[in-house]
Each structure stands twice: as structure tokens, then as C-alpha cells.
Design goal:
Order of helices and strands: HHHEHHEEEEEEHHEEEHEEE
CATH class of one domain: Alpha Beta
CATH topology of one domain: Rossmann fold
Strand content: 15-25%
Helix content: 25-40%
Number of helices: 8
Structural class: alpha/beta
Strand order of the largest sheet: 6-5-4-7-8-9-10-11-12-13
Largest sheet: 10 strands, mixed
Number of strands: 13
CATH architecture of one domain: 3-Layer(aba) Sandwich
């Protein structure tokens, strides 16, 4: 019997696997990338749901959500939730600041000769112990400017707990007779009030539409002649273009539309030098351009004339 000997593997086959390589895999080929595992967990699921809802592929869903959000916001605003919340916050902050020593304790008023303190306080709108920081100075000043006599107002804080209010009042210049009564007006013609009490009795009286706006220059021109001012009862703005002087004895002096300085000076001479107001006249017409004047007697007969017709009311 032949002996059986075990054959050793050769050097070339040593270390090699006896298994044949798998199909489709070649030696030296790059390994295939592995697929990433899908994110899992609660928040990952929420993210996928949100992404699906707001996907551009579903515009109607997105539009519906926007409409719902806007509707809720509108309901909150119109329902007064936000203002009530802010008001409660403001009240709490005001109380805190007041307890800290910054609550309004005094209001000092200056310059209000004709404006009642109660009216000023009502316009300011401040309350005792209100936070000095909570006063809107610009709005308070705007309310003060609506008061009839107030021409200007200045409000300042005086820490820790005072307000100073300085009032500049309007200066009455004349009375203005209107169908609705007598009004007080200032120099530039602005109506101040309907108060025409005796304390303003010495002011000029204006008649006619548009008289306050045009009176300043004319009254100042007349005021330079004392003899005329002493006899003037009213200044009448006639036909929206010229002035008449109504004197205390009922005489009407008619002046031209322009260049009435020279005519006023001539009237002063007639009163002082010739005593024209002591004669039997009712009207002096100084409108003609010649140096002569036209006088109509109280009985309707002209006592001096340059023209044959009498003066008219225009």
C-alpha cells in the first residue's frame, strides 16, 4: 500500500481564501456609499409635517393659514386686548414712579391775566400724583393753544414733582360789530372772543365785512391826529375797498381807496382851523382828487361843493 502524504500549500496560494469572489465585485473597485438613515424622533416628525404644510405644492393650504393668522390678529386689535394691556402696564408704571417721588404735586401758572386757571388745568389734562414723565408736553401745549386768549404757551418740567406753565395772552385791539354781536379782535384781525365787557370800552369800533383784516394801518394813520381820534365813533370798511369815519355827532367822513393820509391830514385841518364840525353838515366827502372838499348840509343842501351831485354812501 502506498503511503499517503499531505501536500503542503505552495507559497503562491498561501494566505488566499479558497472562496471565490462574489459576483459583481472586482478587486481594487471603490466602495459604494451607504444610504443615510432617515432622521427619526419627535422633532424630526414635526419638521416634516411643517415642511409638508408650507410646501409650494400646496398654495391653498398656505393661503388659508395666512388668512386665519390675520383674522386672529385683527380680532385681538379690535377687541381692545392690546390697549387694555398697555393701559394696565402704564398705570402700574405710573404708580411706581409716583411712589418714588416723581408724582406731580404742583403746577405753577404765569401770564394768565384773562384765562381762568381751571381752563388751563382742564387743557393740560394732568392729575395729582400723575407721573411727571407721563405728561406729553407737546400735546398739552396744543390743547392750551385752543383756548381763546392764549397766543403762546410754554410748559416745562421741574423735577422732581412740579410743572411750570407760562402763558402769553392775546392783546385786544378793537371791537368788531357783526350781525351775531360784538367781537373782540387782535391787531392782525383774528377774533379773540365775544367778550365785550366794559373793561374794553376804550377800543376802536369796526364796522363792515373784512374790517378787522384791513384796520391796522388805517387806525394808526388816524391815531396820529388827536383832533380826529377824539371825535371818531366808528371806523366803517365800505364795500370792501375803502373807509368811512363815523364821528360822534353823526357826521360821515368819506375817504378815498388810496392815498388817504393826505385826506386825513386835511380833515384834521378842517376840524382844528375851520371848526367844520361846528357847522350844519352831515357828510364830508374827501374822495375827489382836487384840494376841495364836498360838504352836504343836514337839510340836504350843499354848503360847499365842487360837483353838483351830493355824496353817496359808496
Amino acid at each position: 500500500m502506498r503511503p499517503v502524504s499531505k501536500q503542503r500549500p505552495s507559497e503562491r496560494t498561501r494566505g488566499k481564501s479558497s472562496r471565490s469572489p462574489a459576483r459583481g465585485i472586482t478587486r481594487g473597485a471603490a466602495p459604494q456609499p451607504r444610504r443615510s438613515k432617515r432622521a427619526s424622533g419627535f422633532w424630526a416628525g414635526v419638521g416634516r409635517v411643517v415642511a409638508a404644510i408650507f410646501s409650494p405644492r400646496r398654495p391653498m393650504v398656505l393661503l388659508t393659514i395666512v388668512v386665519v393668522i390675520l383674522s386672529v390678529a385683527a380680532a385681538i386689535v379690535t377687541g381692545g386686548v392690546i390697549p387694555r394691556t398697555l393701559n394696565k402696564t402704564d398705570v402700574a408704571a405710573n404708580a411706581l414712579v409716583s411712589h418714588a417721588g416723581f408724582g406731580i404735586a404742583q403746577v405753577h401758572l404765569y401770564g394768565n391775566a384773562r384765562t381762568a386757571p381751571a381752563d388751563i388745568m382742564a387743557a393740560l389734562g394732568v392729575k395729582a400724583n400723575q407721573s411727571i414723565f407721563g405728561v406729553n408736553l407737546r400735546q398739552a401745549r396744543a390743547r392750551l393753544m385752543t383756548l381763546p386768549w392764549v397766543a403762546d404757551a410754554d410748559i416745562k418740567r421741574r423735577y422732581p414733582d412740579d410743572l411750570t406753565v407760562k402763558i402769553t395772552e392775546r392783546v385786544p385791539y378793537a371791537h368788531w360789530q357783526t350781525p351775531n354781536g360784538v367781537l373782540l379782535v387782535e391787531r392782525q384781525g383774528r377774533v379773540i372772543t365775544s367778550d365785550s365787557s366794559a373793561r374794553f370800552a376804550g377800543l376802536p369800533l369796526l364796522l363792515g365785512d373784512g374790517a378787522p383784516e384791513h384796520a391796522l394801518g388805517f387806525i394808526e394813520a388816524v391815531a396820529r391826529h388827536r383832533a380826529i381820534v377824539k371825535r371818531v365813533k366808528a371806523y366803517q370798511y365800505q364795500s370792501g375797498r375803502r373807509w368811512n369815519l363815523i364821528l360822534d355827532n353823526g357826521v360821515i367822513v368819506k375817504l378815498p381807496e388810496t392815498d388817504w393820509d393826505a385826506q386825513i391830514k386835511e380833515l384834521d385841518r378842517l376840524i382844528v382851523d375851520e371848526g367844520i364840525l361846528e357847522t350844519n353838515i352831515r357828510e364830508i366827502d374827501l374822495r375827489p382828487t382836487s384840494p376841495f372838499f364836498f360838504v352836504v348840509g343836514r337839510d340836504g343842501v350843499p354848503s360847499k361843493e365842487k360837483k353838483t351831485e351830493t355824496g353817496s354812501a359808496i
